[in-house]
Amino acid sequence: MNALTIPYFVLPGNWKEVTGIKCNLGDIAKLSVNGASVFAIYADVGGDDSIGEASVRAIVELGGDPWRNHKIKVGLGYGVTYEIIPDSANLEATRSFDEIQQYGSVLFS
Fold this sequence. Notes:
This protein is an alpha+beta fold and about 110 residues long.
């Protein structure tokens, strides 16, 4: 998964135990902050103690600047919302940025 071109997010390893919601890799979410939003796919499992990791493309689309001296720095601050649609994974419809945005807009309409 290319973090520069594909908007994706990471959920904690204990997501289902904490929320009671089972999500599968590839599920679609709408990430929003400060009036900006982007549709993104669930692409990785993180540690159990935090939420908030997203790809460079997701951060840029949400108005952030992830770069400092040509290296990735800290992402966005507090306040990003994740509206996830469980069981929405569709690998045929989510191969590119444009496809993810189109599929997300259909799911969230």
